[in-house]
């Protein structure tokens, strides 16, 4: 087979490099506590807020142990400034108001919020992995008082550090269902060169074809928040972080999208010079001289990105990026006049029409389902508390669509398996839930979800327990439930025990399709091989006669209301047999970029099966 020897050499080299990188990432700077579960680690203070160690204490106990002691002291100080009784009473009040509000919403029509449980991470960033586990990552808090800035945005040195955890839904909702996956230790060019877990919070991310998450940028500290050149992948198969070559520029608040060839396009973000200095440089990972990581054992280590010939001079960060069915990348900036079309192959940029709405802050945007083909339109929502309208871009034309009940920012909108949309989370503005900034009180309306049916009509639904605004996130799980998390201020303000290692919280929402009565369609088996485009394949099911639709739903990786990975496609049903349905995949990589998708089978009521993972796309140049 042409190229087979080169591929084998690449695989061997990647395995060796990956092993070395893993060893280096865990060598001598790792601590024993970092290998323990979150609750056990916190028993020694490791899960508390990261704080600088007292030099005299460090001389006796060692740097990490002394820092753990400093963390405990910081947590105790935060508890005095914002007492535990206040947090407990707030959570009890939110629980009661949620129960009272939701009594009016029938689960069969509106769904319901079913579970609420502690998490060891704030969930500033979230990704559903093709193993079914959820990656959560953020920062070590430097403050336990929610009326103050809890993150190390403007810090330099050791306190400017990241953290990451995996939640395994199969292990339930207790502390034992979470595992710490410490980011690599880095030396940041901040003048201190103090080793710390990589401060990759407020980075951008997207999936590679092999199921790994590429993470780019982060906070280098100081200057109101400055961009880091960091480049990592998280490998879901070994549950390990790996570092790649630094990017050409620092990026804090960048956006990333995967394009049809499986590479990732990285744009925007505040540069190393600090807040107010967005970079126009566009980069591609990996560079064209490197093969795209395709198989689970091909781990990118030390690979470089490369600068594209085109620039993207977004004035504001975290633009929405979508790779639509024409293979182009639609860059939808927060400023109305910065709407651009990028050709990732020709490396060109063209103007799109000005969006009818004015400036949009952090709000969601969704590529609308279009059946078997990839999406050709995007719905822009939220970002302006004064404007409840939704705006649709189709080709080169904007239209104003049906409004939601009210305007909100910081919202997260998901495509559900049945093709409906769900909006969760939201606030008046950054750090303001309706009663002023850094005030944890919130208007009830921002806690209510909104539901959009397949005809484009919206209606309000039940309330989530916590108001979640800035840094809130949500994603669809393989069993059809929705995970809701994020917003460190609200999580700290409603922490049932601020002294334990569970800083965050997760809430699970069950959409209405899980409350229709009767059973769900069965999906008993899918091919274990890669599926090509336009290819027919069989999905085993003991309920074949009940299947009316099949759906491929791309997994979500999301932060700051930016979700570039969502995609909803409907493979064609070409035959129904006893024990199986025959399906045909979308026609091209432009319709569905290569990678892992959740396959659902749906019945006539729109009730989905529990999903199974399939991998779509063949490696470019490979024989079939």
From TrEMBL:
Pfam short name (any one): GO-like_E_set
Q: Which residues form the signal peptide?
A: 1-32
**Sequence ranges assigned to domain Glyoxal oxidase N-terminal in this UniProt record:** 397-513
Residue ranges, annotated region (Disordered): 63-82
Q: Which UniProt keywords apply?
A: Signal
Q: Does the keyword Signal apply?
A: yes
The Galactose oxidase-like Early set domain is annotated at 520-615
The processes (GO biological process) annotated in the record are:
carbohydrate metabolic process
| Name this protein carries in UniProt | Galactose oxidase
